[in-house]
Amino acid sequence: MKQITLAFVEDHKLVRQMWMTLFEEMPEVKIAGESGSLAEAIPMITEQQPDIVLLDINLPDASGLDAVPYILESSPKTRIVAVSMHNQASYARQMLELGARAYVTKNSSPEEIFEAVKAVMRGEQYICEEIRNAN
């Protein structure tokens, strides 16, 4: 597998730092950047053109539902993995309909988040077990 470039868009600094720590240890991953808001994210994503953006769907300046089109417009080849505390299938469905390629909850294990990233890199969609098992 080629090296995957990742960017993180999450309003909680601690969560962003945990994601960075988790993924920095993986040689197949390069961190492209991180941001706490959509306004900060768009210039970073436009410049870096990451393979994957892990996108929290609750941002201080936009919902993830609003963010997906902006991200895809500024970096059309970037794939989005939506990350949320919401475990309702309707949220996952909406994010995928807007163009996200995967949906995981904040209850997902680090292994499952990385599995979602790998699935998306293979061109697949991914829905976390918590949602698949609930429906």
From TrEMBL:
InterPro entries: CheY-like_superfamily, NreC/VraR/RcsB-like_REC, Sig_transdc_resp-reg_receiver, WalR-like. The modification 4-aspartylphosphate is found at residue 56. SMART domains: REC. The keyword Phosphoprotein applies. Keywords: DNA-binding, Phosphoprotein. Pfam families: Response_reg (PF00072). PANTHER family: TWO-COMPONENT RESPONSE REGULATOR. The keyword Ligase does not apply. This is Response regulator transcription factor. It comes from Terrimonas ginsenosidimutans. It comes from the Bacteria. Residues 5-121 form the Response regulatory domain.
